[in-house]
Amino acid sequence: MAQFNWRNNSLMLLSLLLAFALWLYVSNEQNPLRDKVLTIELEQTGLEQGLIVTGGVPDSVTVKVQGNRSQLANLVPADFRAVVNIPAGKTGDLTLPVQVSTPTGMRVTQVTPDMVSMFIDTVTEKEVAVAVSLRGEPGQGFTALAPFYQPNTVVARGPSRVISGIKQATALIDIQGVVKDVEQSLQVSVGNSDITLSPATVKVVVPIVAMVPAKTVPVLIAVTGSPAEGYYVKSSVSDPATVQLSGQPEALSTITSIKTEAVDITGADKNITREVGLAVPQGVSVQPGRVKVQVEVVKGEAPPPPPGDGGDTTPKT
């Protein structure tokens, strides 16, 4: 039976180990480990129908990977996937990890940010009024009447906590220097990118007419509701008390006063001060367009109406 030659085999094994170590050394010297930073689009998964993500979640993350020169040479962002997985049924404030998948052989050493904060909200919608504002002034000798627009309401859709605070959608139309009617389709907005509007545009017409003599009329304050029990409305005043109208003579001839938007005093137990708009008839413009209203609410029993008043309890200016 042949005997095992320890000396010769030990030398062979040592030679192999030395050769392997030399190979590792040469490989590392010729092709050392390097870092590469890439910007990866951040995806969201798991979001249930009827929910929406808010809170400034970034569109992308930066990923630092390590590998040798040959591995990194042709590496592109599309080779990676960065994902935030939203747990089922979760709403409210969440802080979730960013999960990054990499090509085989790559090592991720850093993800920035590695955690993202978000708010998961339910999607709701409601109808809101449209308000169109004018920018600029018509040409000399002309005036702009109140704009007409259709539709005058739109449906706002988005996160419930944002929707609850939205009162109107606005649009702006430029009439600087114009001497004839302006007709445009305008984008409406609520100033929040998380909200979508349907329809997203309204058709606006601004009548431009030659200046006509102005007419000054008093402002009548429209009050709705009743104050708290044991209180009554003593008086109501507007500042200014009169406004100036302009428009076609036939439209102005029938107007003797201008009412404010409704001022709700339901449950009031103290004075109410509010800036409100005016109910402007079509074909007429008014300056100023808004007035400051003060309703004086005092404790006690309301005095009887004066003789001949017919029981009208509408506060007088």
Description:
By secondary structure, this protein is mainly beta. The chain is built from 4 helices and 25 strands. The termini are far apart. The C terminus is likely disordered.
Question: What's the rounded overall pLDDT mean?
Answer: 85
Rough shape?
Answer: elongated
Count of beta strands = 25
Class from secondary-structure proportions: mainly beta
Order of helices and strands: HEEEHEEEEEEEEHEEEEEEEEEHEEEEE
> Could you tell me the strand content as a percent range?
over 45%
Span between N and C termini?
127 Å
Helical fraction? 10-25%
Reported for the largest beta sheet, the result is: 6 strands, mixed
Radius of gyration: 37 Å
Q: Helical segment tally?
A: 4
- Low-pLDDT residue spans: 310-317
Question: Short description, anyone?
Answer:
With 317 residues, the protein is mostly beta strands. It contains 4 helices and 25 strands.
Tags for this model:
five-stranded mixed β-sheet, elongated, 25 strands, mainly beta, six-stranded mixed β-sheet, disordered C terminus
Topology readout:
Blueprint lengths: L5 H25 L2 E13 L5 E4 L5 E9 H5 L7 E5 L6 E6 L1 E3 L5 E6 L2 E21 L6 E3 L3 E3 L2 E7 H4 L4 E7 L7 E6 L8 E3 L2 E6 L1 E3 L4 E6 L2 E2 L6 E9 L2 E6 L1 H4 L5 E2 L3 E2 L7 E6 L6 E4 L2 E10 L18
Parallel strand pairs: 1-4, 8-12, 17-21, 18-22
Antiparallel strand pairs: 1-3, 2-8, 3-7, 4-6, 5-8, 8-11, 9-16, 10-15, 11-14, 13-15, 17-20, 19-25, 20-24, 23-25
